[in-house]
Amino acid sequence: MKGLTILLVDDEPLMRLSMVDAMEAVGYEVRAASTGTEGIQLLRQNPFDLVITDLRLPGADGLAVLKATKEAAPETEVVVITAHGSMETAVGAMRLGAFDYITKPFQMDELLLIVERVGRVVRLRRETEESKEIHDDNFRFGGILGANSRMREVLDKVRTAAGSDVPVLILGESGTGKELVANAIHQNSPRNHHPLIKVSCGALSEALLDAELFGHEKGAFAGASRQRRGRFELAHRGTLFLDEISELPAGIQDKVLRLLQERKFWRLGGRESIEVDVRLVGATRVDLAQAVEKGRFHEDLYRRLNTVQVTLPPLRQRTDDIMIIADHLLHDYSSRMNKRLKGFSPSARDLLSRYSFPGNVRELEKIIERGVTTGRDHEMVHPADLCEFPSCPFTGGGPQESCGFCHEGLAAESKSKGVSLTSLSAAREEFEKSHILSVLERVEGNRTAAAKVLGLSRKALGDKCKRYGIPSVTEDAGEEGE
Ligand SMILES: Nc1ncnc2c1ncn2[C@@H]1O[C@H](COP(=O)(O)OP(=O)(O)OP(=O)(O)O)[C@@H](O)[C@H]1O
Ligand SMILES: [Mg+2]
What we know:
Layout: E1 5-9, H1 13-26, E2 29-33, H2 36-45, E3 50-54, H3 62-72, E4 77-82, H4 87-95, E5 100-103, H5 108-134, E6 140-141, E7 144-145, H6 149-163, E8 168-172, H7 178-187, E9 196-200, H8 206-214, H9 231-234, E10 239-243, H10 250-262, E11 264-265, E12 274-275, E13 279-284, H11 288-293, H12 299-305, E14 308-312, H13 322-336, E15 343-344, H14 346-354, H15 360-374, E16 380-381, H16 404-416, H17 424-442, H18 447-454, H19 458-468
Parallel strand pairs: 1-2, 1-3, 3-4, 4-5, 8-13, 8-14, 9-10, 10-13, 15-16
Antiparallel strand pairs: 6-7, 11-12
The structure holds adenosine-5'-triphosphate and magnesium ion (MG).
Protein name: Fused response regulator of ato opeon, in two-component system with AtoS: response regulator sigma54 interaction protein
Pfam families: AAA_lid_14, HTH_8, Response_reg, Sigma54_activat
GO molecular function: ATP binding; sequence-specific DNA binding
């Protein structure tokens, strides 16, 4: 391992010099001391991966150096040099925690082999520490992985929310981890000994959802042959997770709001109110603030829910987390399937980190699961293992089918070769965008002029610009309104 830092303690100048030379030639960083006392001083002041010390030294001897090392830095490995025939001291050194010993006289190659072995151990330890760090609380909470700066903010917020008892609104595209966050909040909250009840608001008709949430008395409606408790009641003292909360019909929004305000409700057909103590967590993929503006969602309910807002960024905006999650999933699936996969090939890593993941972490999960299940290599996952279709051009089959993942990978590949392997409509859009941009440039950003040139209405051009993310930075004074 290059960059290994070594302290060498030996009182014989010639020996010392030739050892330093040999080790530096391989790329190790070496410092040398000629007495045990000097060595001990150096190792107390500097971190070393390895200390190599002669056992017989004037003053503080090699065993003292070994003990001092293990005291100052238990992780630092020690290799001792013994004189021929002093086996006992060597064994004593091993008992004190030396990594190995080498007997004089020795060839430099022998020494380098031992150092190389230490290098491997140190590297392995560092890798384990790194992955431990990722799995440390700083980067994960309730199974949510993320080292990306925005995700760390999210994790902080989730941690705080878990400790409090206020309603939480979770926003994010499909597959970004909204339900995972809801679980984490409940599991780490003071309510975790009570139930977490989940309701998907988009799946049921208004009447069914009403009965589902609030329950009903026997005979409340045709078919209500017995009394039934609703989800709010079941979640008493626990948490109610309303998924796809934007889909709540207006009438039920009112009822939920009232329940939150009064902490009680009525079953359908019930005469007496029932008190409940429920913490509400809602999640949605849509822009709920906009839904409020458009009158589609009750403003007061929104305000109550929005006490704490957790917004999960799409995976393509936290690309530094892709491989962290991917590596974690690979090890997870691999051990679950009794495989011993070590990682992704460099090209597979490259493709994964460049892919846009419209389905976010859920899509990443599927891709990795496929890679682990279908991969034939025992050590690594390769690009072809990640593809959904056996006949995808990516895997060397025909060009009939390709999954989104391969499609992007291929497009990136062919782009670098000068051809864009995209659909006609994608190519048309690409051309349209670049043409609009060049016309806008020629007319110095004047959209009215550009619209005339392009044969579009001012509004149509505005829409296209919005779609292609062309900013209207040049809305100058000469422009008229929409
Ligand atoms: N940061 C993350 N670390 C690890 N796993 C994650 C992370 N985010 C999401 N996942 C996993 O991805 C999958 C999808 O997450 P989840 O079901 O919470 O998404 P969602 O936002 O609720 O999606 P939808 O809107 O489609 O319901 C789950 O298996 C979840 O465990
Ligand atoms: Mg969900």
